[in-house]
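Annex B. Sample input.
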Amino acid sequence: MSARDTDWDGVRLHVVTGKGGTGKTTVAAALALALAAGGRKVLLVEVEGRQGIAQVFDLPPLPYEERKIAVAPGGGDVYALAIDPEEAMLEYLEMFYGLKRMGKVLTRMGVVDFATTIAPGLRDVLVTGKTSEAVRRRDRSGRRVYDAIVMDAPPTGRITRFLNVTQEVAGLARVGPVKNHADLVRGVVASPETAVHFVSLLEEMPVQETLDGVTELHDAELPVGGIFINMVRPTGLPKDVLDSALKKRFDHAELALGLKAAGLVGESADASAIAQALAEEVTEHAHRTRLEKRERASLAKAGTPRYELPLLADGTDLAGLYELAEAIRAQGAA
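Annex B, continued. Sample output.
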């Protein structure tokens, strides 16, 4: 595997967040493939219990274990882990208190579920703790087990609280294993080895939520990564045509003649009506292109690297994931 400079050299935990509907899980999966390319080993972690990773890779629901799910370009491996808070709590009890058997009893009694329900922050601590453990883990020879970890994280609206919850827990538990565990997690999440990436569309609401999320992370002193602009449509038409459409100077008669000359309409067809319909679509496209240009300019104000991923005409299947992974690598994000 040859060395390759990227925008995120030295980053080992890539946290991916985004407003619902922006394709957050898809981008996280593509990023994992991109990071694994060339013979690396990457763990893709899901923390919300939605089985989104399984759906994206067209797999059965994933169990609470790390298992290989894909081979990246160049022979790298992508593993996946769907974190179950209940199982994570059992691990926690065994790790810090040697109480795994007692933890199973508590689970049967419903105490674990009760605890995570009345204290939602505890659930976040457990899943971030499991992810942080994977970041720190080494094999018997002392080498890192994974070259990188990608977390399919909660939506932008709660990402700062999700990542900052360990600091709150550490403040409540002044001493003991809980305090030590929270400090370890915070040490990973807030370190230069972590980057929190945002997924956005070129639409007003996702863009504003992304900018708000970047500001909140800065205020919380958490590491901001890049912005992945997803589902980008090709412009397709020359600038002068788009400008004419916006100024309502689009010549329908000329378009009708062009359609006939190109043999795109038959002699009996109403070329004028077809030209009118096409002109309306061109005008709509011109307005959308102008709005997207404005939203690009807004995202540029965040001052962080931006990467554009194409809208996949055939939808996001496995082939589409590899296409997105290649786009991510080509832009230097992995």
